[in-house]
Amino acid sequence: MGRVITIDPVTRLEGHGRIDIFLDDRGGVQDCYLQVPELRGFERFVVGRPIEELPRIVTRICGVCPASHHLASAKAVDACFGGAVAALAVKLREMYYQAHFIHSHIAHFYLLAAPDFLCGPESAADARNVLGVVARVGAETGRAIIRARSRAQRIQELIGGRATHPVWCVPGGVAKGLSPAELAEIRPLAAELYDFSQFSLELFRRAIRDDPEYHALLLDGPYSLDLPHMGLVGPRDTVSFYDGDVRVVDQAGREICRYRPEDYHRHVAEHVEPWTYLKFPYLKARGWRGFVDGPGTSLYCAGPLSRLNAAERMATPGAQAAREELFATLGGPPSQALLGQHWARLVEMVQAAETLRDRCADPEIVGDAYRVRVGDISGEGVGIVEAMRGTLTHHYTCDRRGLCTSANLIVGTTNNNAAIQMLTRKVAAAYIRPGSEPGQGLLNRIEMAFRSFDPCFSCATHSLPGRMPMRVRIHRGGRLERELTRGAGGDR
Amino acid sequence: VSAARTLLVGLGNPILGDDGIGVRLARDVAAQYREGGLEVLVDGPSAGLDLVERLAGYARVILVDAFEAPALEPGTLLRMDAGALGPAAAVSHVHATELATALELGRGAGLPLPAAAEIHVLGIATRAADSFSERLSPELELAYRGLLEAVTREAGALCRREPIATGVESVSGGGDVPGGGGERWKTTG
Lengths: 492, 189
What we know:
The structure holds 2 protein chains of 2 kinds.
Chain A: E1 3-7, E2 18-23, E3 29-35, H1 42-46, H2 54-57, H3 66-80, H4 87-119, H5 130-137, H6 139-160, E4 169-170, E5 173-174, H7 180-209, H8 212-220, E6 229-233, E7 245-249, E8 255-259, H9 264-267, E9 268-272, E10 279-283, E11 301-302, H10 304-310, H11 317-330, H12 341-360, E12 380-387, E13 390-398, E14 404-410, H13 412-415, H14 417-431, H15 440-451, E15 462-464, E16 470-476, E17 479-487, E18 490-491
Parallel strand pairs in A: 6-11
Antiparallel strand pairs in A: 1-2, 1-16, 2-3, 4-5, 6-7, 7-8, 9-10, 12-13, 13-14, 16-17, 17-18
Helix pairs in contact in A: 4-5, 4-6, 4-12, 5-6, 6-7, 7-12, 10-12, 11-12, 14-15
Chain B: E1 6-10, H1 21-32, E2 38-41, H2 48-55, E3 60-68, E4 76-81, H3 99-108, E5 119-126, H4 138-159, E6 167-170, E7 185-187
Parallel strand pairs in B: 1-2, 1-3, 3-5
Antiparallel strand pairs in B: 3-7, 4-5, 4-6
Helix pairs in contact in B: 1-4, 2-3
């Protein structure tokens, strides 16, 4: 029997995960599984409730992307009531969502991703965090990060009433409009966020793209898979966060399929494995072909880089220039350089900031026609938005009284479940060699594989007093051979 | 902003069974607390910088949250201050950043945050919460009245700036409590 390496829990990941790495007798990687606890019973929890309550309930599924769930749910509920939505409400929802995207992308880039690059994957775990980033780039940047996040938060409050656990969307529209005074407050904040998005891109260029070691890691490291990509596209096949068609392109950038939300079940199916509660979506037309990439795969990726891959262009000029720059370095589109997802996130931040700025200049954004009377109950609705970490689908049915009879959700991370498993295994195999002992730096490089997806597995759990945010166990022949811990006292 | 203000924050997910007890306690403290000097944020951001930004301007903060503590009897009240949490500790979701890190980042950015010793955590020991429900487990429901009284009492003492002990206190009538040691406790939300 070979050895087992367990990383438990995974640090800087939404949720409490554990990686099991199975080594063969020679010490090479035989297999690798990422296992995460899944919250259960949501479908049962919502059955029997008035369908219009669901957008307010689903914000509790996830503390990280409440707005994504709120909006996808609202769109599904709109459809359950016949599909009519006020045009102004669509604009306002979209505007709100840009601020949410910026807020979330800042958190992921600066708090989760940047420490790996700006502090270095080999640095001590207790120094590899946002404080290490600030130490590297300066206190003023630390202040700018805080300020930008609070600006994005404030914009959400001004548009939607509250940033945390929004209760704003109602069938056919939204519960409040935007006043001229609120718009006047948003305008300079949006301009500031645009500047911050450009600042962040420049930081990426300087500290990561132009650094020979990181440049090589982006392009030549093991962090790539050969998979199709999924993303929502708007008019002229531009990257869209709130609405559009779902488009999937193959490894050559050719369109494999394109569908409206209500047709999702014709194109995507979910595979079940006995060792995890997580499901593994795949392209239905190809059938489940296992955890394989390459030309014959039925798997796909979703998320920031996938959105850039699946679209033909960005929706705004500054973001388009940034997209061209990204592909000039990474190759593509499509690019399979999955660490480039961090860069793609910043390109999206530019688009979100530009869209916000454009909406501020729209004379029709202030008005009272933000809700329409809903139609008869249709009994079924599907809502799709792009969550930060991938395409998010909510599908509900209800009875004639409007009481929920079923709910099915494919959340952003779920799209990437198979890709995360495969990439984690690939990176583990690349860095754990027969005869070498896996150290903390190597283990962090494995974590970087799934951190690139910004995965979000259920609600988080955390250790307290926090001595062991990560545990690695190495077994041989069923006996504990070695234990590595990582915690407040540093690595040991 | 008054320097003497104390803020109590309920953390947790109200539709995740026992994980929601912090929110319920905060709501009930807000409804029944009569002494003044205490502000309550019933259902605020649960983690990281989002949470820390809401603490700015307060002299003292009390965070009420469920803690997954398999070794303790459900309903055991855990008292500690943020200074004891350590840099990798909890009261956050990992997507954001740990509370201690977020506090340090916030201070570095000039936010007027309370000192770590003035950030008090009242944790309620629970079993794992992994299923959606608006109800508490029978064990926590049984302990709830006692917990509400204890949390109200602690909040009052903190508002009056009376010294408080840190450590573990059982309010569930469970007798000896295995405190300290090496067991891991996890927040559940």
